[in-house]
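Input/output pair, single chain:
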Amino acid sequence: MNMKELLYGAAYYDEYMPYDRLDKDVEMMKKAGINTVRIAESTWSTCEPQPGVFDFSHVERVMDAMEEAGINVIIGTPTYAVPTWMVKAHPDVLAETVKGRGIYGARQIMDITHPVYLFYAERVIRELMKRTAHRKCVIGFQLDNETKYYGTAGKNVQEQFVKYIREKFHDNLDAMNYEFGLDYWSNRINAWEDFPDVRGTINGSLGAEFEKFQRTLVDKFLGWQADIVNEYRREDQFVTHNLDFEWRGYSYGIQPYVNHLHASQCLTIAGTDIYHPTQDDLTGAEIAFGGDLIRSLKQDNYLVIETEAQGFPGWTPYKGQLRLQAYSHLASGANSVMYWHWHSIHNSFETYWKGLLSHDMQENAPYREACIIGNEFSRIGNHLVNLKKKNEVAILVSNEALTALKWFGIEATAAGDHGIGYNDVVRWLYDTLFKMNVECDFVWPESDNLDQYKAIFVPALYAAPDELLERLKQYVADGGTLVATFKTAFANENIKVSHEMQPHILSNCFGINYQQFTFPKNVGLTGSIIRESGADEADKKNETKEIIETEENTDVPATAKVFMELLMPQEAEVLASYDHYNWKEYAAITKNHYEKGTAIYIGCMTDDNTLKAVITEALKSAEVELPEYRWPVIVRKGTNDLGKCVRYILNYSAEEQKVSYYGKNGTELLSGESVQDGESITVSPWNVKIVEEA
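Output:
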């Protein structure tokens, strides 16, 4: 979905203000170049203080002011936090989870399938739409907020799940018991009426299938809201949602509780919120990861609906970082940068999740930097909006694999599992590609566009249907380069481990098999791929050496980490073996030519240098150009509405960086200065240059 302009803005809550300052806020927004606010989605109890009694005065007041000021408004449906009167009258609208029934207080604690909740939610959505959809200032609608299934597993959800299972197995109990292995520990179900409460299951296949079903509840819920909104919205108004990520104090990995690909189908434009470390920990990786994933959902531009302005004390940005962050989002194909939120809240749960303005509501350093950003967006935004990207590399991600590796952890032992998870492997690959300046898209098991990529990376695809593995095998046969890590192709979609040679179906494609795996203790790596990255060849002048070395880790020995499969090569070339007296006969990393393509298998987690060397080998095989740049300089590019190539040269460091510009002669958009091919460009600390080719 192409947009007329970049959206720059913040969430705005007139309801929370300590005094009437709407006019002042509008004045400050205009000064900052803010052209969009997002309102309404957090205050159901204010909009409907009693059942059927509506008060949208705050919403209408803000719309009036914004309309007069020429500022866009995004309306959020207020359904993610329920009012007290609903819970008082219908306590069972609160989700029943593995921990029992919830207690009112927090947001996102309701059962999104409960008919009473849905009745009231539909009513408030319709009333809100009646008052907003016709307004000139309203450009779009956000469905709910960071929706997940919230662990809901009550009686109604269990009944729906049994229907789902009966359909999946065509009413064949024997087939279900066999496929899920329910004979174990007498878990066999001999009548549908005997189907137990799934919250107590110890069977990973049944438990993972239930989680997969729970994710479908999110798809249905958002689709249901979209259908209501679509009854009222104009053709020129969009429908979006702020899809979020696995949370580790910031946006980290694939969301366990939502299948992003499925949930986004009802949206006209994908949206997201992305939070990330800052100060010395600002690497750009989280911004790029989140952006690349959300852009890939519809293979189109997307909206950053939320990101931090200040946030918690550890997120207070250094000078220049707010601006660098804003352009980082655009460099991934975002058409908006919107802060959570405009002002800092003076009480309640998010008091110290600071907005753009601090608690005194006056101009401050982030606001003054926001003024610079907003005015630059106004000046050059027509060169940056709707940036289209065409990448040659993709990463395949899977919610099913994520869930399976939660049930059967990578580092699980008899004492339990406290180790890394699926997302750690995803980020291990992604972050390394990012720091090597290799831009990538994401694909999913359902994706039908694998053949548009020269190389596909597959992290820990533990659970996958045979059909997907056959497609990956054919992808290699047709000339693609496939790189897979340990824990790939071990079990089917029902987490039933194959009784055939591992890796299942892909064994001859990779030219290997294995029967054993363990945890590496004092295990090094040795082989041709290791020598390429070693410090002993410092005088070797080649492209590989240039890319895989970094100043901070050139002397780190090549090591196997976390988990290791004892690979037995058949046709495959051994790129690395285990440097250990007991494991030396086994391969760690292999490369195989299969029909027209290349398949590389990484049997263990490695140090960064080794992974860079493997990626370099893979991309050379795929004939993907290896960039000259490396982190902390990140270069991201695309084609703008004018049909011109735009390169963002981003400096994620406190040091000045000098880089050579490679591309057609052009103009640095921020300064207006001309840039020649091969010219040296200086990028100051925490800053950016944007070059548009002539």
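The chain has four domains: 8-37+241-385, 155-201, 393-621, 633-693. Residues 155-201 form one domain.
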